[in-house]
Amino acid sequence: MELTVRTKPNREASSGYTHRVQTVLTQAQYKLLLEIAGEQGKPVSVLIREAMEEEYFKKADLQHRRAALKNLLSLEAPVADWEEMERQIIKGARDG
Questions:
Q1: Record's superkingdom (predicted)?
Q2: What is the span of the domain harbouring residue 10?
Q3: Is residue 16 left, alpha or beta, with left meaning phi > 0 and alpha meaning psi from -120 to 50?
Protein backbone atom coordinates (compact mmCIF):
# COMPACT_ATOMS: atom_id res chain seq x y z
CA MET A 1 0.00 0.00 0.00
CA GLU A 2 1.37 3.41 -0.95
CA LEU A 3 0.77 6.54 1.11
CA THR A 4 1.21 10.08 -0.17
CA VAL A 5 0.83 13.15 2.02
CA ARG A 6 0.02 16.48 0.41
CA THR A 7 0.59 19.68 2.30
CA LYS A 8 -1.71 21.98 0.36
CA PRO A 9 -5.15 22.69 1.85
CA ASN A 10 -8.08 20.73 0.44
CA ARG A 11 -11.76 21.41 -0.21
CA GLU A 12 -12.76 20.32 3.29
CA ALA A 13 -10.75 23.10 4.94
CA SER A 14 -13.92 24.90 6.00
CA SER A 15 -14.80 21.90 8.21
CA GLY A 16 -11.42 21.96 9.95
CA TYR A 17 -9.63 19.50 7.70
CA THR A 18 -6.64 21.13 6.07
CA HIS A 19 -4.45 18.32 4.74
CA ARG A 20 -5.14 15.60 2.23
CA VAL A 21 -3.71 12.08 2.55
CA GLN A 22 -3.78 9.77 -0.43
CA THR A 23 -3.37 6.00 -0.40
CA VAL A 24 -3.50 3.25 -2.98
CA LEU A 25 -5.64 0.17 -2.24
CA THR A 26 -6.14 -3.10 -4.04
CA GLN A 27 -9.39 -3.58 -5.92
CA ALA A 28 -10.61 -5.96 -3.20
CA GLN A 29 -9.74 -3.54 -0.39
CA TYR A 30 -11.49 -0.66 -2.12
CA LYS A 31 -14.58 -2.74 -2.89
CA LEU A 32 -14.83 -3.84 0.75
CA LEU A 33 -14.31 -0.27 1.95
CA LEU A 34 -17.12 0.94 -0.30
CA GLU A 35 -19.40 -1.80 1.00
CA ILE A 36 -18.67 -0.90 4.62
CA ALA A 37 -19.19 2.80 3.88
CA GLY A 38 -22.54 2.01 2.27
CA GLU A 39 -23.63 -0.18 5.18
CA GLN A 40 -22.74 2.50 7.69
CA GLY A 41 -24.07 5.37 5.59
CA LYS A 42 -20.76 7.22 5.77
CA PRO A 43 -18.34 8.50 3.16
CA VAL A 44 -15.12 6.53 2.76
CA SER A 45 -13.15 9.55 4.02
CA VAL A 46 -15.07 9.46 7.32
CA LEU A 47 -14.35 5.75 7.75
CA ILE A 48 -10.65 6.36 7.19
CA ARG A 49 -10.54 9.27 9.67
CA GLU A 50 -12.43 7.24 12.28
CA ALA A 51 -10.08 4.29 11.84
CA MET A 52 -7.02 6.52 12.19
CA GLU A 53 -8.48 8.16 15.28
CA GLU A 54 -9.22 4.81 16.90
CA GLU A 55 -6.03 3.01 15.91
CA TYR A 56 -3.38 5.72 16.20
CA PHE A 57 -4.49 9.05 17.64
CA LYS A 58 -6.23 7.74 20.78
CA LYS A 59 -3.30 5.44 21.55
CA ALA A 60 -0.79 8.25 21.06
CA ASP A 61 -2.83 10.56 23.31
CA LEU A 62 -3.00 7.90 26.00
CA GLN A 63 0.77 7.36 25.82
CA HIS A 64 1.38 11.11 26.17
CA ARG A 65 -0.97 11.33 29.15
CA ARG A 66 0.70 8.35 30.84
CA ALA A 67 4.14 9.90 30.32
CA ALA A 68 2.92 13.21 31.76
CA LEU A 69 1.47 11.44 34.79
CA LYS A 70 4.68 9.47 35.29
CA ASN A 71 6.69 12.71 35.16
CA LEU A 72 4.31 14.40 37.59
CA LEU A 73 4.46 11.53 40.05
CA SER A 74 8.26 11.43 39.84
CA LEU A 75 8.44 14.99 41.23
CA GLU A 76 7.59 13.70 44.71
CA ALA A 77 6.12 17.11 45.49
CA PRO A 78 4.73 17.61 49.00
CA VAL A 79 0.98 17.08 49.13
CA ALA A 80 -1.33 18.25 51.89
CA ASP A 81 -5.09 18.13 52.09
CA TRP A 82 -6.84 20.40 49.59
CA GLU A 83 -7.91 23.08 52.08
CA GLU A 84 -4.32 23.52 53.31
CA MET A 85 -2.92 23.61 49.78
CA GLU A 86 -5.56 26.15 48.74
CA ARG A 87 -4.63 28.41 51.68
CA GLN A 88 -0.96 28.20 50.69
CA ILE A 89 -1.75 29.02 47.06
CA ILE A 90 -3.86 32.04 48.03
CA LYS A 91 -1.24 33.23 50.52
CA GLY A 92 1.51 32.87 47.88
CA ALA A 93 -0.54 34.80 45.33
CA ARG A 94 -1.30 37.58 47.85
CA ASP A 95 2.21 37.88 49.24
CA GLY A 96 3.84 37.67 45.82
A1: Bacteria
A2: 2-95
A3: left
Please provide the DSSP assignment of 39-59 as one string.
HHT--HHHHHHHHHIIIIIHH
10 Å CB burial of residue 37 (0-12, 13-18, 19+) is: middle
pLDDT digits (tens, 9 = 90+) for 66-85: 999 999 888 877 778 889 88
DSSP conformation class of 9: -
Task: Report the domain count for the chain.
Answer: 1
HSE (side-chain half, CA atoms, 13 Å) at 1: 10
| Global pTM value | 0.55
How far is the C-alpha of 42 from the C-alpha of 38, rounded, in Å? 7
